[in-house]
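Key idea: predict the complex, not the pieces.
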Amino acid sequence: MNDRNLVRGLFILAISLAFGLLSLRYPIGEFSQAGPGLFPLMVSSLLFLLGLITVVRSRFIEHVHLEFNFKHIAIILGSLCSFALISEHVNMIAGIACMVFVASFAGTASYSVIRNLKVAAGLIAVALAFQKLLGFNLPLY
Amino acid sequence: MDVLHNLALGFEVALTWQNLLFCAIGCTVGTLVGLLPGLGPLATISILLPLTYSIPTSGALIMLAGIYYGAQYGDSVSAITMKIPHASSIVACIDGYQLTLKGKTGLALFTAGVSSFIGGTVAIIVLSLFAPMLGEVAFLFGPADYCALMLVGFVCVSFVTTGSLLNGMAMCLIGVLLGQIGTDVNSGLQRFTMDMPFLADGVGLVSIALGCFGIAEITKNLDNKDERTPFNGKIKLMPTWPEFKRIIPSALRGSAVGSFLGILPGGGPVIAQFAAYAIDKKVSKYKHEIGQGAIEGVAGQAAADEAAARTSFIPLMSIGIPENAVMALMMAAFIIKGIQPGPNMIAGHPDLFWGLVASMWVGNVFLITLNVPLVRYWLSVFKIPYSVLFPSILFFCCIGTFSVNNNLDDIFITAVFGFIGYIFLRLDLDAAPLMLGFILGPMLEENFRRAMLLSRGSFTTFLTRPISGALLGLIAVFIVWQVAAFFLQSRKPDIVPLEPIPQTK
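Result:
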């Protein structure tokens, strides 16, 4: 199960099934008078075929170990969501600062509050420049 | 002398001070981003796309084009000095880095700069002669031909960017399916929206691009834990006269190869570099030196790179079909600005078209007069630690996503696509074909439906029309060749399989 080629094939199959089964719920029509479901059904069938080939092919070629490191992607996505949530409920300056502090947990260098403060201050300055000079509609404060 | 007249019009547009400024900003930002780890032209254009909303049309397009070729140049600088190609300058690593090892970094950078200038100039001549001509041909295209052309683009891009037709085609099709989300234009039915109102207009292009290229790339760099050592060598830029003489023939060869390969579907900088390098290895007077740090090894590929980057605008502007993922994003930028690229664009917006062409040459002048002499300052970019850099990239991703609709909820969609992009990355699926599929998907469906309507539901229309028949024949030959190659390879298990071409972004 830990073979990258096999997982890739299964992943493609999953996507094609998701879109293909959903498109069956829309009117298919005929080729001369296509309904909204026809084209997605065709494309997802083709994708299903490609997924099958990938799965079959993975049995014949060398297995590649699949690495998956959840830590960094989780921190990065967390920082994005915290930016959106705090910008919505407090303001965007707090959102930017929060994003920098959350994101730097993923950094390789040692965690430094002072560096984070400097980065956050720099980015807030850029955001202010965007708002004042380029006329962006940013809810900074 | 229509061309000269048109070019004069173009320079009139490109040389206004606002447009000069946008061109300079584009080149500078592009070079900067090209130097930075993990951000190719695709990510940069998608981050900055929303920021161009408030800029006038011609300025915005000039800036985006500047970012594109500026990034190509910046990429070659980091390839020559540190052997780190981020996006497209894989070939520059070979001889360029060898020259650095010999202590001739300045010579390599100068050669790359001058050759890029030559390549760009040749490409602009090709562009201004051929784009209007190809535009005439485009009027012969029917819906079936457009479908076939897009399929050829999918196949070529899949193969060139990922090295694997199977993975690349799968990504194209996933892109097409993602493009189906939203309201169907023909019936008004909402497809795949799962009754979520914010999906009724479809998934935002910027969210997908930033998720798959920005967020996923940052995470990849964090996972790799690369610490980069900045370049500290001396740089002596000016070459001697005999060295300079060696640049010219090789650069001209590269320009010709690059201009031609740039026009073909799926073509673009990467394949042009490899071809130019291979040709120099065959025909150059100094071919015995190539591979060990020859000027020709840098000049030819740099010229081809730059030439192909420009001529790849030709299919977009004259037929209206982008041929690679970067051009697909440029097309999105055109459409956001209310301009439909295609045969009517040159006639309908001559100032825009010729202005863009002229600005490419102006951008070239900027690159050679500003960026080449200042290259040692540019290299100080590498002294910025990644722990400072990646929060800044995240910040631009957030601001970019937000300012499309002034909607904070879009950031959550970007986060979702960041996660999907990360899965793609770990499964070794390149997201560039997905981008092309996503942008061309709706066009493909519309043309397919139209072709089927015209032929009353018969698929023979794709085979009997000469243009689409020929294009589909090409695809068939290509697929048969791929399948045969796979079976031949699996019969001889002792042969090491070819390394896939490194990712292009």
